[in-house]
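Appendix B. Chain record.
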Amino acid sequence: MMEKVMTVDGALPQVSLKRRLATTMLPRPIVKRLVGLYKRVTATFEIASNSVYDFRRFLIWSSAGRTTLSQTQARAVITIQSHRIEKGLALPAPRPGFGIDAVTSLIECVDAYLAEFGWDDTIAAGTDALSAYRDFNARHQVLMPMVDHALGRLRMVGGIQGLPIAGTKNVTRAEIVGTLPDDLSAFFASRHSVRQFAPRAVAQDLIVRAIRMAQKTPSVCNRQTWKVHVFSEPEQKREILKFQNGNRGFGDTASHLLIITVDLQHFTSAGERTQCWIDGGLFAMSVVYALHSLGLGTCMLNWSVLKETDRAVRTVAGIPDSQVIIMMIVVGNLPDEFTVAYSVRKGLEDVIVVHQGTSGGGERLDCAATFQPGL
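Structure tokens predicted for this chain:
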């Protein structure tokens, strides 16, 4: 069903001298059309100009189409190939000998990385993935001499390693269910965007603890593309927050300011050009819920800005050009009592679309018939 379209016609821009002259010389309908055309052309140019800004940075920093990779780009490629193997091993019934192309690519990338950058956790994770792959195939009497030779070379360089940091592991439903609270609905319902903070500073170790919890956030091929820039010095916070209009009146009272970013060097193709917003948004929400679980107040500050503002805050905050700024988050201790915005939430019938059969269409859910109050 087509939605109705709302026409914005009320508040026109401030009337300039040229506009006054135009209104005296031209019929009002023509003036309105010219103003509308001008606004459309201006918006089109602005969108195009800022899209070029994003395009340029993705082209420069992603590894799409490149044959020479930075260390971060090479790590991402190894992580992708390692995770392809891990995902295959985690299927209900993996096929012995599966994914030989991923295995071959991983061995080549690991050898090249090792020669250029030396042994580190990236190589260790790749080695563990290859070891898990070799062990799986051995249990099915499938020989993998190429993998055996690669593991022999890598073990000689890396030496005897401790517990695996990659591969697969077995878990039970009981283990997972045993960690769950009785009802998370109260936890979710109690999170608010907080704009009133207690004056005492938040302990830095709580920020670190929350970020550690948030690192379990899913990301594309487990690349974990995010970074958190942490600021607590008052003057630096004020300088950064000047570029974000949504924090006026409260931002400088927060104990900490976090800037969530995603490093474009982790992405490898044009199809991933917008993946930074997905990975970064998921991670930011995890950080906020982790901070909430520690009894801290947060407010997420959007970063929907033009390129000039984006460039300016990078200079002040020291954000590299390779990183996309996803959002800012202010963090503070909760006062004993405070006021929050009590915002209306959409009904489930406006959110859930149920698809049935192969028609391709969807129907809005009849929530009154489906859900009982309180469940």
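Further analysis of this model is presented in Appendix C.
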